[in-house]
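User: For documentation purposes, I need each entry recorded in a consistent format: the amino acid sequence on its own, followed directly by the corresponding structure tokens. There are two entries in this batch. Please keep commentary to a minimum and don't merge the entries.

Assistant: Recorded as requested. Entry 1:
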Amino acid sequence: MGKFIFQRFLTSIIVLIGASAIAFVLLRVIPGDPAMLMLSENATDAEINQMREDMGLNLPIWVQYVDYMKQMVFLDFGDSLSRGLPSMQLILEHLPATALLVFWAMFIAIVIGVPLGMIAAVKKNSFADSFVSVLAILGQSVPSYWLGMMLILFVAVKFNLFPTSGYGTWSHIVLPAFTLAVYQLALIARLMRSSTLDVLNNDYVRTAHAKGLPEGYVLFKHVFKNALIPTITMIGLQTGQLLGGAIITEFIFSWPGLGFLTVQSIQFRDYPMIQSLVIVSAVVFVLINLIVDIVYALVDRRIVVDS
């Protein structure tokens, strides 16, 4: 197990280095000059050049990257150009809101999606199976921005059940969490149905039935555990993506998370802020995948042996 974790850790370090390099280069090749955005429209060329020099943008890109990596070693991610505060401080202020939103979204998706997927598989070709399949397809087809606006229009505005935006109480999180959960719920239900059907066709399940074991015991002792393995992997991947990509939902509901901060940083071409957001998102994504790999190995010990 130790060797398995060490191998995954080394892979994670390589991924983080690659993510930082790609983000650094792409931010500097896209059109636009952050020095001009920091100054007024009447700024002279001399003032713009001085600002670029102060920001280090006049240096070769590889020199800028080396300096940036040196700063990262000491956990110095630079100051936000638009706000004048340390980038990491701003991220830590917005991270709890995003983490809370993602937690409840995935909680809703898992609690509903896993049982629905198993029911659809056990009741294959029945009305329940068709019903779950239709719901899953709809859940993956409906755009999150449209669903969010419809919830605001009908649930919040027309029936006044929940607030349209804000942050602080449980009522504020219901609509954005549900909006974010719908696609994940559908994905989990479909994958759980597929993996459960694969497990049900295995010989050891037939043998368990032939021995006369109760149906519930076979499902939860033999089927559920093995069918859950690919679902665990997908849940980990989706959780990592949501932490770094819940931008649309946060923007629609004015949720003060990392997605909202990302939109503002892009508008101002805030290099240090965007780079810090990319690094933090990559770190979170890698850590979640590392945890998923460990859980995966604990569920199925053959993975450790094969590695």
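Entry 2:
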Amino acid sequence: MDPSLMTYAWTGCGSILNGSASGNLSSPNFPALFPSRQTQGCSWTIRVPSGRIELIFHNFTLEERGNSNCVAAQGARLRITNVASDDNQANFTLCGPTLPFPVYSTGNFMSLTLVSATNNVPGFNASYETITDEMLCPSAAVLTDMSGEITSPFYPRRYPAAQNCLWKIQANKGKRLKLEVN
């Protein structure tokens, strides 16, 4: 994409990422400690040209200790809207010190809001990229690499109903396949 067509606008704390098929975002001051008591929160809006968004966290510490129960925890929260496979949560929220699994959007946009408490933690950094439904659930993928991994859509989160994914694993003549299911 032509960089002059990409929009990157700061909204005080957070940003609007519009038009790029991939990018990066992080909490304020990352990897240093982010400001506490941001009651208004930091907001990011990601909009890609088409497809879905895969949000991958590379670092994530919103609490110092092991509490990842976002209802009972007292630390910062990252709320994400327009999440596919939200694991039946009305409000998809991440917290704690554990690196989350990737998060997928239901369409071509996603918004995130970070609200901090009195934390003294680094926060997070993440990247996003555009993916297609065919990438999540191929209709006729032929796999010929010597090794690899396949997963159900949105793994390890819940996958949507009525999926019909097809992977054909093909070895070279005279070779055998070994399939391990975890």
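Summary note for entry 2:
Helices lie at 133-136.
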